[in-house]
Write a structure and sequence with these properties.
3 domains; 16 strands; single chain; 11 helices; D-Maltodextrin-Binding Protein, domain 2; 320 residues; alpha+beta; Alpha-Beta Plaits; five-stranded mixed sheet
């Protein structure tokens, strides 16, 4: 089973792994597979950099070596990422939920070595949706019976249609799925949608979202004991980065007798720090970390409750 998965991995990637890693974990470094290009590439690298890992990218652009930690990045095709983790060539990977679920629904999903999501990340949000041409007679999923649907995600599309008792012909395309109806190749498409601008440009209308996706941090079922502490440290830092992304540090002045009311207005705040104001016995300074977004409406509610000098600051790092 493992040999079959490795054969499916991109040829250039497989050659690099075979010539640089003679055995899983053979060089004692934690290897993370990330998308080499596309919508998740930049955000994946930035996440790891925010975790304090400094990388130097190799000349062949397939590998980035960690300078300050024994962590390497392997740049690969997104659909290779679950397979690289399953084969033991990488211990971690960052991939879209759509890629993970598509692979899980194939033969690899039943393998005990298939990766599992360790963290849901806060980027790469999109949806897999069925779309039809403007003016089409297709108004509902049931209208797709006996028709052709072009997609790069055949397993997800079949799974959704089967759950609704719909039988359709799947036209597998690896790219430019949105042009299939224009070319007469398909009656509808099932493709990733983010803003919807691509659909509009090809005069397509979103009929039905079938899968909500965002980036996932994937891990294999086993890791060498010598690397476990490094993995635990990295996961703790990832948690810190994810917490910080929406967290804000709020400072304000408030009437001492309204602390409970004002604390209740701070979104996602833990018990705040309350400090007396010198020369003003009736008011105190309140400092709190809000783990949710702080909007103008929150500030206006705080002011209405008696708060003043409200200051909202970004949080750079946080470790629980």
């Amino acid at each position: 089973m493992r040999a079959v998965r490795i054969i499916r991995i991109n040829v250039l990637t497989r050659y690099y792994i075979m010539t640089n890693y003679s055995a899983p974990n053979g060089n004692g470094r934690l290897r993370i597979a990330v998308q080499k290009s596309g919508r998740l590439n930049k955000a994946s690298v930035e996440l790891l950099q925010k975790c304090g890992v400094k990388f130097i990218r190799s000349k062949n652009n397939l590998l980035a070596c960690g300078q300050n930690l024994p962590i390497d990045l392997l740049y690969v095709r997104d659909d290779d990422i679950p397979r690289l983790i399953a084969s033991g060539s990488c211990q971690l990977g960052i991939a879209g939920g759509n890629v993970y679920q598509e692979e899980r629904l194939t033969e690899a999903g039943d393998s005990p070595s298939f990766p599992t999501p360790l963290r849901t990340l806060d980027f790469g949000q999109c949806r897999l949706s069925i779309a039809v041409p403007e003016g089409s007679k297709i108004k509902d999923t049931s209208d797709l019976n006996g028709l052709r649907i072009a997609t790069s995600y055949p397993a997800l599309t079949r799974d959704y249609l089967a759950s609704r008792g719909v039988t359709a012909d799947i036209v597998l395309l690896s790219g430019s799925v949105e042009v299939a109806p224009e070319l007469g190749t398909a009656d509808a498409i099932c493709d990733l949608v983010s803003t919807g601008q691509t659909l509009a440009a090809h005069r397509l209308i979103e009929l039905q979202p079938i899968f909500q996706s965002q980036a996932l941090l994937l891990g294999g079922p086993e890791i060498e004991p010598s690397m476990q502490s490094l993995l635990n440290m990295l996961l703790a830092r990832v948690d810190g980065v994810l917490t910080v992304n929406e967290s804000k540090y709020v400072m304000l002045h408030a009437p001492a007798n309204k602390i409970s009311e004002i604390t209740g207005l701070l979104p996602g705040a833990e018990t705040p720090t309350v400090l007396p104001l010198e020369g003003n016995s009736g008011r105190v300074a309140v400092h709190a970390v809000c783990r949710e977004s702080v909007f103008w409406e929150h500030l206006e509610s705080l002011k209405a409750a008696g708060a003043s000098s409200v200051l909202v600051l970004p949080v750079e790092k946080m470790l629980a």
